[in-house]
Please model this.
Amino acid sequence: MKTYLDCLPCFLNQALKTGRIVTSEEKILRKIIDQVMENLINIPLDAPPPKIAQTVYRTIKSITGNEDPYSTIKRKQNEVALGLYPEFKEMVIHSEDQLLFALKLAIGGNIIDLGAQREIKDIKKEILQTLSAPLTINDYKGFRRSINNSKLLLYLGDNAGEIVFDSILIEQLKKIDHLKIVFAVREKPIINDATMEDAKFVGIDKHAEVISNGSDAPATVLSECSTEFSDLFHKADMIIAKGQGNYESLSEENKNIFFLLKVKCPVVASHLNAKVGDTVLKRQSGEIRRPDHGSRC
Amino acid sequence: MKTYLDCLPCFLNQALKTGRIVTSEEKILRKIIDQVMENLINIPLDAPPPKIAQTVYRTIKSITGNEDPYSTIKRKQNEVALGLYPEFKEMVIHSEDQLLFALKLAIGGNIIDLGAQREIKDIKKEILQTLSAPLTINDYKGFRRSINNSKLLLYLGDNAGEIVFDSILIEQLKKIDHLKIVFAVREKPIINDATMEDAKFVGIDKHAEVISNGSDAPATVLSECSTEFSDLFHKADMIIAKGQGNYESLSEENKNIFFLLKVKCPVVASHLNAKVGDTVLKRQSGEIRRPDHGSRC
Model:
């Protein structure tokens, strides 16, 4: 998916929000905003939004000298999600279709994004809402067929905290004997995306091999990933891609990908023919959609 | 009120929204966004937001060649509001405190801002909500005292459509024999702000003298206004200033101003110690609040 004009003001808002986590000094925040605007002028929009977001967050890091603005928030998100683990794990065990329930739980967990100030009860409440309603886009049948025919499953993680719910899904998928599961994280901290440290903190490495994708984009921008990761990506029979960033960066890849996400912005909503708030289990379609440069996304 | 960093992404969003009213050509829209970003880099933030907005909208006009992107929308807003006039006028007549009711109606009418796609029933519904609840900030007693002691009242209009409800308030104020009322509009089209053409279209000139403020800012930026207007501003015993733009541009003027508005953005909300959606009848305080450059507004 290409970057849309609507993404540009959004990048500025993200820069301001992230800058404020690091500092309240108006001069530094102004420097960030000005530098981001300078970078955005004339920037080609053919790349997916996370590729441009990468340059935005690098600017913040370089101006503030803070390599991981979200580190405290991420830690809290992991702890909150771990606190919810026993209850949700129990719900999976007692559900009628454990795999579907775990899938919906992993999609619900995608609500833990930048909402740093969210209370625990809100996260729980929102996940419960996802669990109680049908998925808006639902390729579950195709998903079931695909896992039965796959040997190597590559699972692309998204955010800290959320990976606890990915872990519950992986525990379900592990029951399929012929399936080897590899879980991928970002190489370096970027927003609240999960890194190797987060994966180990929540113990996902006990259930799957965990690898880094070699990149600090908040997504899976293949041209930026390590050779090891890219080889695995192309070798995998099936890919689970969590969250908007992975959707934005892989929506045109001709692979057997299942996108699991909650829709959080109007641009992605429009690209998916969905609405903000919708829950998505979407198989990559055979036809790859080409962006229409002449219209609003 | 100074411009806050949060206003910068908002200006980009406004530019995109307004650009799209004029054209769907991606290249032109991109040119607008890039030019606006170029203008915003290093721009001093001491000026109120409408002063910077003025440069944003001038950029859109200059790139698209369209001097009045909102003309069709404004016409529709005037027609919709005129359609609601008889019903609301009747409600004023049958209300217990006609002046207070008309004030609340004028504040409720401030909902007609950029919501170009709003349906008639939504506008009516939102105004009825304002009428049924107490004002959040309420200096009505001071307002009553002030009109009793004033001879010249300058009424600063805001948006097309909304001025129909200003007209109803002016019809109430006209009953006070000693009060001369002058209604001011923008000199040139800017967003959906009311101009002389709009004032005449809705017939407000039948109830008050209507003058232009001589400026194309979406507010009352005194340094930009005509001498005739400025003289009147300083001579007036009392000023009614409608909407956020007039608040932003006059919040530090040492005059007997009553701000009537619905709060529509977090920056103005914070400056007023209020919330988005709040309804405000606020007397300019004796102490003029100086912006705090070190903190988020």
User: Anything to note?
Assistant: The mean pLDDT of chain A is 93. Chain A touches chain B through 26 residues (CB under 8 Å).
